Amino acid sequence: MRHGKYPFILAFLLPPVGIYAIYMLSPYIQAIYISLTDWSGFTSTQTFIGFDNYVTMWHDDQLRTALRNNVIMVIVVPILTLLLGLFFASMLNVGGRGRGGVVSGVRGSSIYKVVYFFPQVLSVVVIGIVFKYVFAPENAGGILNRVLSAVGLGGLQQLWLAEPNYLIWIVVLVMTWSFVGFYVVLFSAAMQSIPRDIYEAALLDGSSRLTTFRRITVPLVWDTVQVGWVYMAIQAMDGFATVHIMLGINGGVQGAGDVLGTAMYREAFAEADFGYAAAIGVLMLGLTMVVAIAFMRGLRRERVELA
Amino acid sequence: MSSSIERTPAPAGTDRRTFLQRVALTGVALGPGGAFLASCATGGDDDDDGDGATQAPSGDVSEDNPLGIPTDQPLQIYIFDGGFGDEYATELHEPMFNERWPDIEIQHTAAVDIGAELQPRFVAGDPPDFVNNSGDGQMDTATLVADGLLYDLTPLFDAPSWDDPDVTVRDSLLPGTIERGTFNGTPYVLNYAFTVFGLWFNQTLMDENGWPVPTTWQEMMDVCADIAATGIAPWVYQGVTAPRYMNWPLLSMATKLAGPEILVPLDNLEPGAWGHEAIRESAAAIRQLAENSYFLPGVEGMEFRDAQGLWARGEAVFCPSGSWLENEEADAIAENPTFQMAMMPDPLLSPDSVMPLETVRATAGEPYIIPADAANPLAAMEYMRVMLSLEGARGFSERVTSLTSVAGASDGVQIDAPGLASAQAALQAAGDNVINWFYPNWYPTMENPGIDQITGALLRAEITVDQWVEQCEAVATTIRDDDSIVKQTRES
After folding, report:
1. Distance from the CA of B363 to the CA of which of B251, B320, B396, B465 falls in 20 to 30 A?
2. For residue B309, what is the nearest residue in chain A, using CA coordinates?
3. Which has the closest alpha carbon to B427: B398, B391, B403?
4. Is the pLDDT confidence value at B56 over 80?
5. HSE-up of residue A206 (Cα within 13 Å, Cβ side)
6. Domains of chain B
7. How open is the CA angle B57-B105-B366, to the nearest 5 degrees?
8. How many CB atoms lie within 10 A of CB A205?
């Protein structure tokens, strides 16, 4: 059997690798080729124009805004989501102070678990439309402004979506809100697998909740955090659906909420410039890979063996 | 207890790194094959020479068949299933066509996202014969023209009309219809519906309060002051979505003041066109609305449908739009049976304006195209001839509550919708004083996001009129200097 190992493995590998090549590698290569043409998306042939699209991209101010927004999102959304996710998960699983020394979540944690997961079962479209009305003016049904005036903070009312400086932060907020639930569940699962006796020992030693969180919970779920971090950074590179639905195809007032995904869509489908759109796509591909590698390298730590 | 937390040891012999190395090697090994695969979406065959006319099937030209269409070839039709639906095609135009040509089989398709369905077929060189290129998925006409993908419609417009062999199709249309679909001298697009633009107002509120319909800008400001005093907002516009709607009264008022010549340099992207004194004066007038807080509070942060809905519910009096507004806000309008809307021409900036008050901006819209690679373009043109018949146009108006670009087609039609009836009356009152400008169709990105965003800032009174002119000029310059955009010009 030993000598037949490689043909055997190859026979099993060929179909998945073939599918991967056709549906993953080939589109990448085609996109890179299209980015070197001035293809409108309608013709059967393309004109090769070398790196002109990339030169245009370098001088494109709107694309710079989009890139800046993506950088903000890649940095802020994962940090916010991870902090909130870890905090909520630890409160749900090990944060309770307890009845007879049993390590458990805070009271009502089984309800919170379900509530936190709600955003995850809503489609991005629903979330986008709902939040558009959260931030709408008061007379057009804006929930936030109504709440502000109801609690006597009417002075803080803003026309949120008309103020260029707020746009990207609104997107960050909405994305964080929609991501947190998933990570609470992910981290909860990881925390469930931490031996309870470790917590009991820490309790006996008089460790505070914060210390327990920092010294025990976080190191023991670090693997999961790392996976979540990379995954989320890639999600945050995108942000297309949220921005497109909440702010529209031009990225909101003065294009201030633009992201690369929206810019790419706009170039391809509104301005019929598939070549330039593909160039933006290649830029996104490069950035996503850089971000993924950087995050994986930067977060590598010694593994803790539990058993 | 500890058994439940034991982790499965990693399989011996592989770890993540060696696995990734193998995957990478496989990828490299497949590299040449991948490049081969790359040809599938982009490297289509080049056998089409873009000259569909010579290969198009044809029949004998006769009095009954002026276009010489083949009488037995199928005809593929794509209709945008949006605000107009597609019943006007299936229940009216297609039966009319088949009555004359029973052996031509019509293959009808209704599509919501025209671009998504047809773009791959254009790439493959196998588009349908007739396309209603409209809606959110509309394919950019200027690009289709530049790529040589559209069929020249000159034979259609030169052919005798359906109803009267002595009148050509060209002469049976309202002025400006063909120009609207003409790119550098060649007509490529048939624009069928006719839209009238103006200020739409809440007739009920005006009547109840005895406010007069303003004819000059001074009267407009007086009425606005009266309206504002009652706590109702005088104006709305399309909020954060489309502040460019305010360009319409802005440019219309400027044109009435100084004459239609001022629009030609705008369309031709001539330097300084936006700095014309009349345009400045009009922009300053529009800015006064913001300075006096005559806009609905919060409108600058609203979706356009929310803003228009509040207008239809009586929270504001004036709203700039086209004659589709009545259909668009039908739900909000239906809530209040006493609500009456009407259209007025944009007021005059000065009593000694060049053009009369009755001047309106009106234009043919709702584009229909025939692809250059269509299998049966002549029959598709014949189908357009059916649409442009008096019966076809009148039936369209009755079914979808819209005017058409066929002259006189809506004359006998009793229009029940009060808004559209007032638009029709305004169009008739205007006579030959119908204006339009073309740059938003020739250069869509110049209008949106370009001038759209600049006008948005003007309406928030964040910029002065001088800054507005300067920034509009900058947008025009960007378009002018972009060699990848095919330029259009017009003489008058």
Report:
1. B465
2. A140
3. B403
4. no
5. 0
6. 52-194+363-427 (3.40.190.10), 196-362+437-481 (3.40.190.10)
7. 85
8. 9
Are the beta carbons of B42 and A39 separated by less than 8 Å? yes
CB A35 within 8 A of CB A282: yes
Averaged pLDDT of chain B: 87
Mutate to test the interface with B, among A6, A23, A32, A40 (most CBs of B within 10 A): A40
Q: Does B176 touch chain A (CB under 8 A)?
A: no
How deeply is B210 buried, as exposed, middle or buried, from its count of CB atoms within 10 A (0-12, 13-18, 19+)?
A: exposed
CA B412 to chain centre: 27
- CA B217 → CA B31, B386, B425, distances in Å? 69, 44, 22
Q: Are B236 and B310 in contact (CB under 8 A)?
A: yes
Inspect the interface and report whether the beta carbons of B299 and A13 lie closer than 8 Å. no
Type of residue found at B238: Q
Residue where the block lists tokens 């989501």: A81
SS (H, E, C) chain A: CHHHHHHHHHHHHHHHHHHHHHHHHHHHHHHHHHCCECCCCCCCCCCECCCHHHHHHHCCHHHHHHHHHHHHHHHHHHHHHHHHHHHHHHHHHCCCCCHHHCCCCCCCHHHHHHHHHHHHHCCHHHHHHHHHHHCCCHHHCCHHHHHHHHCCCHHHCCCHHHCHHHHHHHHHHHHHHHHHHHHHHHHHHHHHCCCHHHHHHHHHCCCCHHHHHHHHHHHHCHHHHHHHHHHHHHHHHHCHHHHHHHHCCCCCHHHCCCCHHHHHHHHHHHCCCHHHHHHHHHHHHHHHHHHHHHHHHHCCCCCCCCC
Supply the DSSP symbol for B341: E
- B368 has a pLDDT exceeding 90: yes
- What is residue B477's predicted lDDT score, i.e. its pLDDT? 96
Q: Do B149 and A46 touch (CB under 8 A)?
A: no
Q: Tell me: the pLDDT tens digits for B300-321?
A: 999 999 999 999 999 999 999 9
Q: Is B461 helix (H, G, I), strand (E, B) or coil?
A: coil
**Chain B contacts of A272, Cβ < 8 Å?**
139-140, 143
Confidence of residue B17 (pLDDT cuts 50, 70, 90): very low
Q: Which of residues 402-431 of B touch A (CB under 8 A)?
A: none
Please give the span between the terminal C-alpha atoms of chain B, in angstroms, as a whole number: 89
pLDDT of B42 over the 80 cut: no
A306 pLDDT band, cuts 50/70/90, is low
Amino acid type, B372: A
Q: Which of B14, B121, B149, B306 to mutate to test the interface with A (most CBs of A within 10 A)?
A: B306
What's the CATH fold of domain A60-298? MetI-like fold (1.10.3720)
Phi and psi dihedrals of B433, rounded to 5? -85, 60
pLDDT range class, residue A155, cuts 50, 70, 90: confident
- Interface contact flag, B5 A22, Cβ < 8 Å: no
**Residues written for chain B:** 492
Domain ranges across chain A: 60-298
| CA proximity to A218, closest of A39, A94, A52, A43 | A94
For residue range B239-251, list pLDDT tens digits in order: 998 999 999 999 9
CB < 8 Å to B30, chain A: 17, 21, 25
**Cβ contact, residue pair A29, B34, below 8 Å:** yes
Compute the distance between CA of residue B153 and CA of residue B242 in angstroms, rounded to an integer. 32
Please say if the pLDDT value at position B235 is more than 50.
Answer: yes
**Buried b vs exposed e over B461-482: b needs ≥16 C-beta within 10 Å?**
bebebeebbebbbebbeebbee
CA-closest candidate to residue A305, choices B4, B11, B8, B18: B8
pTM of the model: 0.83
Q: What is the pLDDT of residue B15?
A: 46
